[in-house]
């Protein structure tokens, strides 16, 4: 059966179909050392993508998925080909960068919604060149690949095609700013072509997420740039890294991992980035962008917060595109960088009793963000029904909402009527409407609760990094109390906020309670070795971490409010959660 498709990256491949109608995050969703799908919440959990034709509507979640794709290619664990229904950038960027820098690639295709549904019934897909741009579906294995099949390649080798370059762009491309900047511009233009962008735009600052150590390939790419003389062109912050540089031995981190993670971080610092090491750059006093400011940020929660809460302009850049933006100071003028790219595609009507919102405390916002993200996918939502919350909602609430939303959605932002700055520009009239009720929140909670019993051995806080506001609230809850010895409590934050928390006296109270405070890294990067072997279940107030934890540290999860977490730390078990 011939299936009409658009080639994003041409090439010859064939394999058994692995199909899902649910988007997948490669980071936290696919094991780069095994090829196995490790996202416990995904329908394909336990399947292996190696040498199969992976058919998905799109990807979702973390920007680091592009680095995971490169690791899979280097480890020979990648799919035979990727087929997407919607515009997809994260995994595709991994293929583009691997092809440009490492000469590794696989075919990538896009199909219509109708053809996507057709692929559900196909057992095998081949992409031989004789098919032209189309795919061939079958119920039996296809014949062997022709010996003269060309290697994967971009359908349009002219990376400047359809893009209007300024004299500055042309100078960077031709090497005026060095070989590394030229390479970065080549990759950036491939990405711009992928987005159908017609020009680039300047950015004032960048935030690099590619400093997360995913494996040897992450260092290989960074070293490739560094050896070519890479230097950042704009002020650049670094995301959380894979270790606490000051306490990695105490946390049981393998020495080889610590060495490689440090090497990766040092590479980007050598390029001129600062050692901010935070997944919440919006908490850094001198790095908070202004309304309307054009920036180049990666890290999904940071992108969503910057766009939605601060009103800055950035796309949700895949890892390594963030590096290319930092090295050139340029970004494609597309998506959320434009006014049109910030327009809502749907109206989410929240119908939850006010007394339930009050009872759930801070757990309400992450649960709602998780539920909203699940129903909107790649479309930006306008959320109504919370207009009376503006005076009550905190930055910590919006941080938790945004991180959860970015976990289940691929959209770069949200609007909450009466709360976020740009929401007043838009009206629900004419938008498709989706009603979310307490039933949806209950379903989100049930999905995030993977614990096998009521016991709790670890309280995981700070995903995204804990803010000073959260330290104040937690110290108030913990003052004069003490956790039971069987429970660990670990809080991740950045060095700047940690310093302010020390000055304010919050850390003294929390340490008296028995909490440990970790900087530089975050829960999505903390490995299983940091958790005591006898811990069966952990508890968190982060819907983002509740989603990823089972696949990362192989523990059951309880989700609850910050108050619930403190109570569980005192008792060693969960009882009468606020969110139930």
TrEMBL record:
Domain Phosphomevalonate dehydratase small subunit-like: 24-108
Keyword Glycosyltransferase annotated: no
Keyword terms: Iron, Lyase
Annotated CDD domains: AcnX, AcnX_swivel
Biased composition (Pro residues): 140-155
The keyword Lyase is annotated on this UniProt entry: yes
Residue ranges occupied by any Phosphomevalonate dehydratase large subunit-like domain in the UniProt entry: 164-566
Domain of life (superkingdom): Eukaryota
Region (Disordered): 130-162
Name of the protein: Aconitase X catalytic domain-containing protein
Natural source organism: Aspergillus versicolor CBS 583.65
Phylogenetic classification of the source organism: Eukaryota, Fungi, Dikarya, Ascomycota, Pezizomycotina
